[in-house]
Every structure is written in structure tokens, then in C-alpha cells.
């Protein structure tokens, strides 16, 4: 049987799933993540949730191919509706927009809040999910950013823990939510590359907005404020205001 090849994005997510975990991968697509984890961790078990029939069938096929049907339960359903109230200990939701991920978390909020650890990989709107973690008392314990196929992916890991949170009192909370408090501190090459690209996009959008016949000044001011933040971060200027 050939080894399962998965993306760098999924490999990074897999690193943050606890050993011997019982975890759920919501929107699992072809169940690649739970299959990869269960092949490398013989004590792990998983639920692969999928809302669409085609990917659900493919997920079952992949799980059966690797003889993991006794350890990965592939379920058809919408979001966290596939879970019972007492399962699992970790939830993973990856490869969707931040708004959709937030909607999934809120649709079955009692099941969400029963989970000790949540790992999210939004394709955009990561700041919405940082706000969600704060609101529902999840401690953002780690963040990672990786580049793959000319895209940048942020991975957010949060837990119910009494550990001190990673937000600094020296930098405004709004800015830390926007950039990610841990990503901001680490200031990795991938982080810089992402925000250099975002800076270019924002400049283009602002230019186009200023050329419009009717200018939305409220939105323009918001974009200009974020552009100033990005420039401060990239220039390593004072970021404490």
C-alpha cells in the first residue's frame, strides 16, 4: 500500500493534533488529514465529517483503502451536526473562509464549547476567528503561517486552558487580532511575504476607491488605517499605539 501524500498545509495541522487524540475533521473532503494522522499515530481515532455526497463517498473509499474503517468514522452531515454531544476532544476545520468557519462553530455551539482544543485554518478572515476565541474563552496557544502554491495559510490553535494568553499589553488588541499575536512576535519570512502582498493589494484598492465617482469614506478610512498598520509592521517601527 502506497504512503499517503498530503499538502504541507495539512501536515502542519497534523502536528498540532494531540497524540492518541479522538478528533473530528469537519469538512474533511477526502479524509486525507484523519487518514494521515491515524497512519502515523496508531492510538488516534477520528471522525471525518462531510456535507456533500461526492466527497463523503471518496472519504469512505480512502479510509477503506488504508484499512482504517475501525478508527475513522466517516459521517455525512452539516458541520458539527455529525457529532454527538460528548465527542470529540479536538475539532479541526480547515480550508474554508473565516465567516463560514465561524458559522459552523456557532450552529452547534454547545458541541463546540464541549471541545478542549480547536484547530482552524481559514483561507481568509482569520481575525474573525481570533475574536471568536476571545469571546468564548479559548486561549490562542499557537499560530503558524505557511506558504504553499503561492498562497499563505494561517493555522490557529486554541485550547481551554488556564495558561496566560499570548496577547501583549503593549500592543493594541485590535492590531494583534488583525495580524495574529504570535505571528506578529515571530515575524517569520512567510509572515513578511504575506503582508508585503497584502500591502500591494490594499494600495491598489485604495487607489481605485479614490477614483470612484462616489467615495465610501468610512470604508476608505478603514483600509487606510490597515495599510498604515502593515507599513509599521514591515518597517519595524513603533507598533504600540
Q: Can you summarize this structure?
A:
The protein has 10 helices and 7 strands.
Q: What's the topology here?
A:
Blueprint: H1 8-15, E1 22-26, H2 32-40, E2 45-50, H3 53-65, E3 72-76, E4 90-96, H4 98-107, H5 109-113, E5 117-122, H6 126-135, E6 139-148, E7 151-159, H7 173-179, H8 181-186, H9 189-210, H10 217-235
Parallel strand pairs: 1-2, 1-4, 2-3, 4-5
Antiparallel strand pairs: 5-7, 6-7
Q: How much is the average pLDDT?
A: 93
Shape summary: globular
Number of beta strands: 7
Q: Count every helix, treating DSSP H or I runs of 4 or more residues as helices.
A: 10
How does this model look, in words?
The structure is a single chain. With 241 residues, this protein is of the alpha/beta class. Helix content is 45%, strand content 20%. It contains ten helices and seven strands. It has helices spanning 8-15, 32-40, 53-65, 98-107, 109-113, 126-135, 173-179, 181-186, 189-210, 217-235; strands spanning 22-26, 45-50, 72-76, 90-96, 117-122, 139-148, 151-159. The chain has a seven-stranded mixed sheet with strand order 3-2-1-4-5-7-6, with helices on both faces. Strand 1 (22-26), helix 2 and strand 2 (45-50) form a beta-alpha-beta unit. Helix 1 (8-15) crosses helix 2. It is globular and about 60 Å long. Residues 237-241 have low confidence and may be disordered.
